[in-house]
Request: fold
Amino acid sequence: MSAKANHSPHRLSEKAFFESSGSALKDPKLRRNFKRAMNGLMEKRRDIFPDASELEETRGRAGGIRRKTLAYFPELLEKLEANCESNGIRVHWAETTEQANQIVLEIARSTNTRLAVKGKSMVSEEMHLNAFLEKHDIEAIESDLGEYIIQVVNELPSHIIMPAIHKNLEEISQLFQEKVDPNRSSESAEEMTATARLILRQKFHDADMGISGVNFAVAETGTLCLVENEGNGRFSTTLPKVHVAVMGIEKVVESLQDLPPLLKMLTRSATGQPITTYFNMISGPRREGELDGPEEVHLVLLDHGRSKIYEDELLRETLLCIRCGACMNHCPVYTRIGGHAYNAVYPGPIGKILTPQIEGIESVGYLANASSLCGACVEVCPVKIPITDILLRLRRNRVRKKNARHWTDLNGGKSLMELMTWKGWKQVLSQPSLYRTQASLLSRIGNLLPAQIPVLRQWARSRSLPRFSKKPLHRLVEEAGIDHE
Reply:
């Protein structure tokens, strides 16, 4: 079976986010799947960090390393390019995702590539690389099991570490039976893994190109580092004749000594593991006398708004992220609506601060409002990104934009019902007698309203409602004998 990669770049819109969020909140199966998965991940992270003081010390070290990188960011990128080139890695710079896609296409055409196997890469998702290559008659198949599952059903990842976390075993089993291999039993995880392995091993053998992401790139040695559990990344980067690594420019680090603290925090924060099964270090193509490895290695360095982010002292903290996903696992919003509700490559807290900055605050700034500002993401971030501070900055920036519509603007294209509601609110609060009448009425029937009004009833399904006092505030003040004139 050949998995198609034809999901097209999604359309980000505030309306689509509200609709998909509402649908997710009303999906009990999705809520159960996420509750089970997120609770398990939070428990594993808690168990792997039993010593709070040691955790804070390691977070401080990891965050210090990433901030040191940003302090010398331009110099380190130039050093990375020079050392990669001296190792035989061809370095390409791309300001936009369109340029990055074109670079990969040109490499594919120059090597007569018809089939590419891919290790897990969020940057390639950011580029919508699979769909782009398919338009040019090049098959790109995901080799990470989670990515393979969602590619088969033509979905985007719902989590940056575990792409198919929104599906349970029964759903995945049914998917394999219907779309992968109806002739093989797929009732257990082991059977499904064996089925995928049979398909993917042949793809590894036949592929002309291997594509991967990059977790860390070491400037002093020109080394590309990949973290994985399944071994598919190693297959993708060694069996095909050509290896193309795509990387966001922020993934650079200064030296090999920087890797252990970052790797420790990445694996433990992501999945609660002390270390992953595989840690790959690639420093060039196959050399004379070596038995395996690609004949060509290319590194595509993608900017896509990152240089602009770097210009702001607070916003540049976004670039510290090591893509562990811990902020998602602990976010009360993400864990209730899931990743697909965001309609974005990067969901959850990191997506709320990264996506508006790379896609445009005017068009995607609404994501910054999809937060309770509880700070859970900040508490668990392994490099101490001040996510809530960045969210507040993005909210202010959106309001200040010339074409942005503030929530108090009654002429900004709102619905008639919403317009009338705000005008009614204005009338009530501007007339004391009317306000007192409304307050007295709400104290008597306010607690009954959500059950009687369809819009409120639906809104209340996923919220703990405040209770109206039996007496309005002005009545309580009067009874207490407090002079309020």
